[in-house]
Amino acid sequence: MNRVLITGNGAAAWGARLAATDYVPAFPITPQTEIIETLSDWIARGEMTARMVTLESEHSMLTAAGAAAATGVRVFTATSSQGLLYGMEMVYTVAGWRAPFVLVNVSRGLSAPITLEPDHNDVLAARDSGFLQIHAATCQEVLDSILIAYRLAEDSEVRLPALVNLDGFYLSFTREPVEIPEAHLVREFLPAFDPETLRFRANAPESQAVAVLGGGPYSYFRYEVHLAQGRALAAFDRATEEFQAAFGRAYAPFEAYRTEDAEILFVMMGSFATKAKAAVDALREAGTKVGLVRPRLLRPFPVTALRGHLAGKRAVAVIDQNLSMGKGGILHAEIADALYGAADAPPILASFIGGLGGRDIAPEEFYEIARITREAADSGETPPPRLLYTAAELREMRKLQTIAEAEHHMAKEAGKS
Amino acid sequence: MYRIRFHGRGGQGMKTASRILGTAFFRAGFEVQDAPRYGAERRGAPVFAYVRADRAPIFERGVILRPDLVLVADDTIVPVPGAGVLAGLDGHSILVIASDTPEDVWRSRLKIPARIVVIPLPEGEDAAERRHVGVRLAAAAARLTGVLGLGDVKGAVEEELKRLGPEATAENLNNAEVAWQWAVPHEGLVSERPAMSVADYERPQWVDLHAEDTARSAPIIRGEATSVEVRTGLWRVYRPVISHDHCVKCGLCMAYCPDGAITPNAQGFPEVDLEHCKGCMICVAQCPVHAIAAVSEADAREKETQPSLAGQGEKA
Ligand code: SF4
Ligand code: SF4
Predict the structure, then answer these.
(1) Nearest CA of chain B to the CA of A142: how many Å?
(2) Which terminus of chain B, N or C, has fewer Cβ atoms within 10 Å?
(3) What local confidence, expressed as pLDDT, does residue A204 receive?
(4) pLDDT tens sequence across A230-287
(5) Which residue has the higher pLDDT, B314 or B244?
(6) Residue nearest to atom 4 of ligand 2 (CA)
(7) CB-CB: which of A112, A175, A401 is closest to B35?
(8) A169–B35: do the CB atoms touch at under 8 Å?
(9) Pairing of strands A102-107, A76-79
(10) Residue B257: nearest ligand to its CA?
């Protein structure tokens, strides 16, 4: 067994390498760049046979990825945050092409103001694009999810691009023990891409294009993507069952941690969810029956599985590391929607917003969330949405504002003279 | 779980130190998590890296708030508030500072409950680069925990530094051994903090945010006060020293300085604002007549403290 200490970015690069990727269109952005640097190193040293091309933007990078995938080669690419947004036109377009490839996003909060640290508004901006979407919580899961994502994307019943998300800093630059699967076992799990009708031969050129269509045919094609996403649920189960048989690691659509006898649940995505696991352990020690449910597969969204996990619980706290301005936590809304009308849905679904722009969530904050949620279960009253933001943070903010206001004043005075 | 932080400046090898310690723990059979933490532009700026090690899988993530051990490679950042060296240190924690200043001086200066141990700087160490301190701190940390062997540390040094070639590896193996020996009297000084009890946790002081005037709540900076407040001069490892004998007043250094830290004096000679010059050495590279020297900040400061010599560097 080859268990090594590598970063989340390193694990992503290993995923691309073990998948025997043919083509890597690339563009650098913090905190993703280490992925393409690692791949370019391997390619330069001959340890990996793939063609890497640095494009002039993420828009071109995603165009190249989609176009290459449409010729039937296996494509890997990666971006983050502003880069994903810059390429967003093509994110939607290549999904419409039904071009299967894997895009890794290293989450980083969006501008403005600017941050380098993670939250999920970047990847959630791609939520409705047609890309399949898998969220990893550990470096091991980053690597494994990439292999599973290829199986999903290339499945002839699905044929859609897949996005694998990992959090900047908390995973991208953090080393953890990762088991690197044996290359020959990966080849069995993920054989060479069989593109069937997706092909291009230079000696028999053909053109592929997408027509401008009216609402009728447009609706058909768009809804077909939606239905293909639906078929990806079964494809995910098939792929993860085989993965477990080959490598021993199980990846259900939801990670359920100590949920069976739990009365209340935390629900959250990404690497911060492992912090919630630590809190679950500590709270259980103190007698609170709490568990964690973490969506791994966000698109397609496994509604039935979610209902099963939440059925009969007294209360659920959804902790969103994102914010839909004017509405609230996106995951909270997704879960409320999935639970609507379910007979044994938990009566309390509380919303917490935390970890925006990499803002840490302290253990005490998880304990407090558990306390509030349990109280809500007792009283039957859902608490208002809560931003995790302390008085100390606000004091710091006030200091910055005092400086900004002094500046504004100085600028005005200077303008007068 | 062991929770250990390394503090230094960008370029002083804090990430490497954390990786050496992380790898040493991993080789000894521990579950490990190690990571550096830095922002947008970091050479010379305070940075830190951290290591968690446990016998069980690690769920905790992110910056270590309550460390068992903090090691500081560059003692000039200890008082810099933004560096966060002292954050979370309490009676359980050990603070190791690489410094020529004795322990009792640090104790009376800092007045903190954490135990302070000073590890001497290697002889002849370049005060700015501190090339050898990181490896020493990693090896010292390993022995301070009392659960790792010299073999784990040496194996880790080889693994993490093999890309630098055999010579550098050999030198650093020696460094590690020196620090390992130094740490003999402190073996086992650092212990794992007992788990925090949920029963008496301190409730977070959350506040409700309210909608405020747009003028106040939009992230707009209108003037230079913020830039003045941020003393980027603290990041400097090298200081640009301009020789007015050679300067031809071409103004290139002023145009290229990314911090606008060079302005002309009454005679038209460039003067460096040392509070804000971050030490990037772009001016040094740009000056067409090589009138700007890169002087180690520590040397420059030492000269400053000798009043008779103060300021001479700039005029000579
Ligand atoms: S080193 Fe030179 S260019 Fe760089 S900040 Fe200082 S004065 Fe400006
Ligand atoms: S670039 Fe050199 S010569 Fe030109 S003004 Fe600056 S110090 Fe003088």
Answers:
(1) 15
(2) C
(3) 84
(4) 999 999 999 999 999 999 999 999 999 999 999 999 999 999 999 999 999 999 999 9
(5) B244
(6) B250
(7) A175
(8) yes
(9) parallel
(10) 1
CATH number at residue A301: 3.40.50.920
Q: The complex's ipTM?
A: 0.93
**Nearest residue of B to residue A399, measured between CA atoms:** B226
* Chain A neighbors of B216, CB-CB under 8 A: 401, 405
CA of A397 relative to ligand 1 center, distance in Å: 29
The reply to whether ligand 2 has any atom less than 6 angstroms from the CB of B291 is yes
**Ligand 2 pocket, B252 CB below 6 A?**
yes
Same domain, A291 and A369: yes
Whether A406 is covered by a domain: the verdict is no
Q: Does A323 lie in the same domain as A188?
A: no
Contact between chains at B223 and A391 (C-beta distance less than 8 A): no
Residues of chain A with pLDDT under 70: 1, 416-417
Taking only the tens place, the pLDDT of each residue in B84-118 is 999 999 999 999 999 999 999 999 999 999 999 99
Distance between CA A323 and CA A400 in Å, rounded?
Answer: 23
A226 shares its domain with A326: no
| Buried b / exposed e along B249-284 (16+ C-beta atoms within 10 A) | eeebbbeebebebbeeeeeeebbbebebbbbbbbbb
A14-51 pLDDT, tens digit each: 999 999 999 999 999 999 999 999 999 999 999 999 99
| Number of the ligand 1 atom closest to the C-alpha atom of B238 | 1
Please indicate whether residue B28, judged by its CB atom, sits closer than 6 Å to ligand 2: no
Q: What is the pLDDT of residue B32?
A: 98
Could you tell me if residue B290 is left (phi over 0), alpha (psi between -120 and 50 degrees) or otherwise beta?
left
With contact defined as beta carbons under 8 Å apart, do A186 and A16 qualify? no
Let me know if residue A133 belongs to a domain.
yes
Q: What's the rounded mean pLDDT across residues B39-50?
A: 81
Total of domains in chain A: 2
Strands B115-119 and A175-179: unpaired
Contact flag B59-A285 (C-beta cutoff 8 Å): no
Q: Which of A4, A106, A175 to mutate to test the interface with B (most CBs of B within 10 A)?
A: A175
Average model confidence (pLDDT) for chain B? 91
CB contacts < 8 A, A to B, total 118
Domain assignment of residue A368, given as a range:
254-390
Ligand nearest to the CA of B235: 1
Q: Which domains does chain B have, with CATH numbers?
A: 2-195 (3.40.920.10), 214-304 (3.30.70.20)
Domain match, A176 and A233 both: yes
